[in-house]
Amino acid sequence: MYAFRGDQIVTGGGAGSPARRAEVLSGDHADGHPPFWVRWSDTGEETVWTPTAAAEVEHAGPTYPPEYEEHR
């Protein structure tokens, strides 16, 4: 999984737990791999988060930002 600033993470929703949504604020790796600094929409809390198998990314823009594409 990879994500960049502005992408949305959706996780949970299984075994009776509600789904949660978070906006990716930043990441530690230029290639978009976790962990990510996120802001949870339900609480406004900002945390460092590493995805689980149940997580999905909704990309806000191109798969990779232009500055990364230039160096691939």
Automatic annotation (TrEMBL):
Signal peptide: none annotated. Residues 1-57 form the DUF1918 domain. InterPro entries: DUF1918. Residues 1-33 are annotated as: Disordered. Residues 20-32 have a biased composition (Basic and acidic residues). It comes from the Bacteria. Pfam families: DUF1918 (PF08940). Gene3D superfamilies: Domain of unknown function DUF1918 (2.30.30.440). This is DUF1918 domain-containing protein. It comes from Nocardioides soli.
